[in-house]
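Handout, tutorial session.
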Amino acid sequence: MDTEGPREAGADGPEPTAPQAPCSQGTYPRDPAFPAFPAPHPQAGGNLKLTNQKVRCTRGRLRHPIHFKVSSAASRCRGVARGGPPRLSPERTRQRPLRTRRRRAGPRPRARGPPRPQAPAAWASRAPPRPALRDATRPPACWCHVVIMKVLVMLLLSAVASGCRGNFSYSQPPKLLLVSFDGFRADYLQDYEFPHLQSFIKDGVLVEHVKNVFITKTFPNHYSIVTGLYEESHGIVANSMYDRVTKKHFSDADDKDPFWWNEAVPIWVTNELQENRSSAAAMWPGTDILIHNTTPSYFMNYNPSVSFEERLNNITTWLSYSNPPVTFATLYWEEPDASGHKYGPEDRDNMRRVLNEIDGFIGSLVQKLKLVGLWENINVIITSDHGMSQCSEKRLINLDHCLDPSSYSLIDLSPVAAILPKINKTEVYDRLKNCSPHMNVYLKEDIPNRFYYQHNDRIQPIIAVADEGWRIVLNKSSSKLGDHGYDNSLPSMHPFLAAHGPAFHRGYKHGTIDMVDIYPMMCHILGLPPRPHNGTFGRTKCLLADQWCINLPEAIGIVVGALLVLTTLTCLIVVMQNRLSAPHSFSRLQLQEDDDDPLIG
């Protein structure tokens, strides 16, 4: 017996005497045991109506209908028929407790009205068990894929961060030896055999081409290596120079005046100024000169007659036994430049002999470092200042045929002539411009920007640049069969770079770097603060063992690409799981917003 007593007939409207538009017959399989319009399930106690993707279960004893979503048209019928009155989700039940009527013991008295039709016995027997509702508090099935994706993203970001770390730690101060073989053209490595050098490269790194600075001559490029500056910035603009203000001259035989060198700070000066460090040099250009009142702690005055073995012995001794320790050292050798000028790079017999000798020097260098116990701990860079181009007695440009010698002063000669006019500058320029089709003539202000060769007072008002293989001479013939100084974009002017040591990768080859990029790389290896320079450290990162060589745009592209791949895989997995999973009668019971006071008997 209900607590509110038996209901009066018509209290909630007359009881329906026939099913009111039950579920469509097409949405439930027909069976002979079923009536054409099946009666409601005994537990449902009412009729079913399809309303806008919902099943509406109206019961005579409810004051309000209950609406709940279903997954398919077939489930609309089966869900109520085999499951009885739907249950509310735990969350909705906690939010609004349902008011129910307590039942008395024994059979419930029926409300007055016509008797309800009974469902066939086959209805209950054919109804499958009602599946349990999924707990709304459980995470979705794909939560593990989201976690995996986040972990992978964190690993990628940590890899980028680790790749951008600073200098690696040494148990002792890092040591670096810089070696230059003057005039070592890059393609000599492909044209001749170098067993010792190739063994050095196999366990280290190789840069196949180093783009040097214009003009491609010895003094300017050696100073660019150790300062990271273009010639217009460090002030050594040629092998022969003239300063119009001080009236001073510079040449390879008269280079001791610090005036010419003080416009830049070479790396050995920076290293000398650090605590508990010193530098050493064996005839590298400029190391025997007091630059900014500083020289290397150990150096040799330039003397071309001193053998390579003597220079090497001095360097290894200073690296091994000096106090404070020598952490940066330089070693210079004049070959194969001298032989390249004499024979030309295309004289294979003579050049093979000279280059075999140089390969032997490299073998001696490695053995000496192993003998004194430095090989495993020292970083060694072998490079050069420029290449060499083949010349001929038939490819000469004679300035005396174009200009009156009294109208100009020739400061530097061949293949880049630096000209100081004594008369009207425009007149000298016009005469030179029409002198030869194999020579480009520039006023100082019109020198191409790619040369970085304008902004220095030591650059003369007019320069003339010969084409590759051509030489600028005065009224006499030239005995040189090889020369350098040409346009620095020419492959024949490019040197190479090879490096070995704990700071470098093993067995790595790189295409091209700029000569000014060597300086910031050396500062990084030594842990020195670099002075202002024109180089780019990022171009040499791939050579270093402690650096990740992918730059920032590439790293961002990799991370974005990985996210896209992971997202695509996750979506595919979720779609496949949904296709393979069995259909549910309904996923969650929901009340309509207008059902503000439902009652369930």
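The second record follows below. Compare its token runs with those of the first.
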Amino acid sequence: MAALVASVVQAVPAIAVAAPAAEYRDPRELSSWPNPKQEGRKHDSPKAAGDFRPLMGADAGKAASKFDAKTSKEVGRAEKSVDYVNPDGTRTTVLSKVPVSVRDDKGAWRPVETRLVEDRGSKRVKTELHQLKPEFAASAEDRGLVTLGPINLGEPGQRISVALEGAKRVARQVKDSKASYVDVLPDTDLEYEVEPGAVKESIIVKKPTLTSSWVFRMDTGSLTPSLQDHGVLIKDAKGKVVASLPPIVTWDSSGSAKDNKAPAQTGGTYGLKQDGKTWLLTVSVDPKWLNDKARVFPVIVDPTYTYGFNNDDESRAYKSDGFQCTNCGIAVGNSKSGPGGGDSIWRTAFRHDFTPLFGKNIIGARYDFWRNAQTGSNLSWQSNLYHATALNINGIGQFLASGPIGDRGSIQSKALTDFIAGKVAARDNSTWFMLTGSEGGDWSYKNMQVNLIVDHGTAPPATSLMSPADGSVLTSLTPTLSVSPVSNPSGDGTLYCFKVATGADGQSGIVVDSGCITSNTWTVPPACSPTGRATRGPC
């Protein structure tokens, strides 16, 4: 077999970055939505079972993860990771940047739930398992309109309550993970959506209005809110951040997904004032922008309550005008939000907590991205992944992988697998990556979430054919196939995967296989004989 190997060296232009101004900069289109619901996400099916070619130095295209959401079996989980066994016997750990698990009343990790269910006694709606424990009142004027907690990461038993000042008495509407209050203020709706790592709040302004500020009363008990980096941090008595509101993002309805047209976008400001034992949180948008004749309504104002903080698992988004934001999603591409709609480039540095992988032999890796903001382009644009050598917009290091990303997409390569394997082997948990998007003249901005999917295990030694002998001519339609048994050096069980095919490559034509089984012997069932009417897949 001959192999053709090509090496690609990518030149990345440095971006001239304006010095950050002392005054406030709008975060523009930067979305802070955390992880969206992931039900129904599709992944490519794995290739032939028992394929350990990534471990043996295969080309980049063969270094993909064998994880498949439909066929891989969950065997364990933690707050931000889930472990699986794949059909070929390898194992996969999926690392998330937002909490995907919460402990139940017995202390076991369970998947985060976001669907809202009404409590018959209180008439409030709540989730079954969610670390924020969000609840929503039956009517909008309730002083405990939204309650969060007890926050397990903060003071024991501490809850946070939020209410909109001046809200009308309007009934709550519920659909799946959303709680809505229609016309809570004149021509204004209030909507909440529960996500695995957040409660997303949307103020929906349906018509031109003189109101450009909205006041929420927050009761945080012994927790203390403070303004920082255009957002709000909520800390416990020891100064640990237990919840936050990232910078506000605001957009109108002038955008067009069909025409790849950016909506008009701006940011917003928070105001914070103590009022007795509670706090008044003011959410404001520039009234000139809001009442501009060019505005297309409705306009969405989006502050979001998030939790789940870990310095080993964070992201920093950089914009070419000097603005940057921590833990505000993976922002890349051209947002066209410069003066006069000019170019404005985003890049994001991010990292995952590698400690769940320490001590494991990494044999495959991929990054899965999905778009989580209505303000971003849903077209497919090429993205490039690098090792980040500095925490700034030009901290571009070794090129690792690339791939197109639309509403979702994956990036994988042998170089990426080898790079992560080296860091894990060295127990290095300080590694940052840098993602870039399309940086041409078109609107290509995306704000995304990301999972790192890592396969680990050890390939068993090669087995040898025992029966039938190589080159044998068989008359039986149900031959028994047998190979020598082998042991896995990692201690994991060994699976044997038999395949019979009419194609000379052993992969094509009329194909039948045993699936991956624990026995080193398999008899082809009569209905599966490739000389008869065979079926594809396990028989």
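Points raised in discussion: The two ends are 32 Å apart (CA to CA).
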